[in-house]
């Protein structure tokens, strides 16, 4: 660490405040993103659309604009104010969520979701970069797991609040109720978040890195290639099935939006606990061997598959819910280690762009293809198995987690060497075990 950087060390309390604030932003991000999933059935009825069009609404309409907007926004975040990127993006996506309450047809809702996608593209790349400058290397998996727990926590709130508001007052009021608070939170970010020096815990890096250089740098790291592809395939399964669990419960188990939302909120609690456990567990195991960050992730990803299969096939609600709780916890494990390893393998001046590239592939493959794949399969299978087409579509898609776990295992073949070669992190005193 340079003397200049040492002189600007933040207090531990303020660093924790920043992490908590970014967690809150991510919770709002995922509330506004996931609330649509529990509203698909009433939207389908009122707007008279097919499962394929619903899959387009949840997936490509959001994902394409989210991912392609993410790269230029991340480039700005690596050069300019990360605080401004996050606060402006938060205000935009919250406004577009609230405006979804006033749409009159499918096209208008599609345009609103595109706006949500563009706004949300500003969140995670800038947040990942900030966390790396507020948290020393030895605690990053834990910090990233805490931040990433905002995803299932936000989904939990979105499912529960959205489901019951939709059942009691209608789906339009659900959009309005979750959209407005984010605008106020954007003001909190703008006025209270301070920019830290870039690369505080890293060796000096070049002042700038082009997108082409970042891509070529990342492509030369074998472990990182497998980590990214494993994450993309995991996202394909998790985002696809997560988008359709609401309709699955309503059609197969004949639940209303409120009851289905309550079930999904419980699964989100389980996923949150799995995500929170992933960072500390992998950090502790990595003290013996850094490869355990990905070994643990691979085993958790693989172990989730049979529990998901049981959830979709078991006829009784109670046993199905128990299987889903275990599957959700195991599936949530991967977030912290995935983000921490990615950030540790790249230089400090390319972290926001590296995160944007990771999210680009995760969302193009996961969110862009996953939900519409389930919707299209469901439409194809419905004439054969009736309303249970959604069940068999989910069974097919979740198998991609096996492929994801294989990439996580393959990443460990060179992970130690790649970390030693490419990581520039300088340990803080007392930061290493």
Secondary structure layout plus pairing:
Layout: H1 3-6, H2 12-47, H3 51-58, H4 60-79, H5 82-99, H6 106-120, H7 124-134, H8 140-148, H9 150-168, H10 171-192, H11 211-219, H12 222-252, H13 257-286, H14 292-313, H15 317-332, H16 335-345, H17 351-367, H18 370-385, H19 389-398, H20 400-411, H21 415-422
Helix pairs in contact: 2-5, 2-6, 2-7, 2-8, 2-9, 2-10, 2-12, 3-4, 3-18, 4-6, 4-17, 5-6, 5-7, 5-10, 7-17, 8-13, 8-16, 9-10, 9-13, 12-13, 12-16, 12-17, 12-18, 12-19, 12-20, 13-14, 13-15, 14-15, 14-19, 14-20, 18-19
Number of strands: 0
Oligomer: single chain
CATH topology: Growth Hormone, Chain: A
Ranges where pLDDT stays below 50 over 5 or more residues in a row are 1-7, 424-433
CATH architecture, by name, is: Up-down Bundle
Q: Tell me the domain tally.
A: 1
Order of helices and strands: HHHHHHHHHHHHHHHHHHHHH
Q: Tell me the Rg in angstroms.
A: 21 Å
CATH class descriptor: Mainly Alpha
The end-to-end span amounts to 19 Å
Shape: globular
Indicate the proportion of strand residues: under 5%
Estimated helix fraction: over 70%
Properties at a glance:
single chain, mainly alpha, 21 helices, 433 residues, Growth Hormone, Chain: A, 0% strand
Would you mind describing this structure in some detail?
This protein is an all-alpha fold. The chain has a single domain, classed as Up-down Bundle (Growth Hormone, Chain: A). Helices cover 79% and strands 0% of the residues. It is built from 21 helices and no strands. It has helices at 3-6, 12-47, 51-58, 60-79, 82-99, 106-120, 124-134, 140-148, 150-168, 171-192, 211-219, 222-252, 257-286, 292-313, 317-332, 335-345, 351-367, 370-385, 389-398, 400-411, 415-422. α4 (60-79) runs antiparallel to α17 (351-367), α8 (140-148) runs antiparallel to α13 (257-286) and α13 (257-286) packs parallel to α15 (317-332). It is globular and about 55 Å long. Mean pLDDT is 86; it is low at 1-7 and 424-433.
